[in-house]
Here is the input.
Amino acid sequence: MKGKHFLFALLVALTLPSILLVGCAQCQHKFATIWEYDATYHWHPAICEHTDEVFGDQGEHSFVASYAEESGTHYYVETCSVCGYEKRTALAEGSTVAIAATGYPNLNSAINSVQTDQTIFVLQNFTQGALTQINDDKSFEINLNDKTITAGDTYLIKQYSGFVLISNGKIAGTGGLFVGGGSLECHGVNIETTGSALVAHDSAIIRMEDDCVIKSTGEDALVADGGAGKYPFITLEHSAIQSPSNSAVCVGEASLIIKHTTLTGNKSLTLKKDAVIDHCNIDIFSSTFNGGYSFEATGIKIRTADMMRLLSKFNETDFDGKTVTLEEDIVVSSTDVINDGIISDMNGHTITVV
Here is the structure.
């Protein structure tokens, strides 16, 4: 009799887990298509009898940041890209720019506080009365947000260090940007000032692209000049430089690359240097010059066919007493050939006319 009880108990022990597993597998939970959420998580609620036991696709919020303005108050808005949950943080009264959820009254205070890899977001049009200087070696962005900052000083910003990316908006007023060191990159920025819009000195590295406009109504729009063994490196691509009354570009000791850019001015390009230009290397690719040329430099080096095409626009007398050196083998069309007598030193290279 004991043996039968033992066998029965053993049979129950072996078959019960299988019965339980089958029962669990046959339970098909159903979930609503809507999202429910709290401040941390989102989920699809169960619509079967286990509403308080199971949650579909539960996960933490994935926030995308933006800004909004209502009744004169600016808000930092975080919206979950999955469920749409939104939380808002009101910025301080009088904020014109913001870094994440912290508002600042002006660009000066924001630049003093910004950390590497952060973005200063412009909330509204405003006038910046005092000059802003950047001396820290940090990397950050200024998103103009299709707004306009008007400079009330000689320049809006003087940069001597770090990396600054400026995007999507306008800089107006007396002066634009002065870069004496570090790196500046601009995308879709319109700089329109009464003084010089962009000035590059020493070892500045500048890149302007994506329909940037550099415009001055009273002075040279772009001035580039190095010295003491330092010189700026500037790239202009798919942009425009305009100066109705003066030179659009005034280049001293500098390296300038112009690609698919239109220059408009009384003199579109003025080259200046008191000595032989070792670092005034100018490459021009598919660009348009709507104005005259002034060649005030004592020497220049030809490195590209586009550079020779530029020099072909000058009068031969412009090269009297100047040194012109060929730095690479050049292939040019017959319309872009300059007089052989203009080149002082072929430097072992050749010019091929096609």
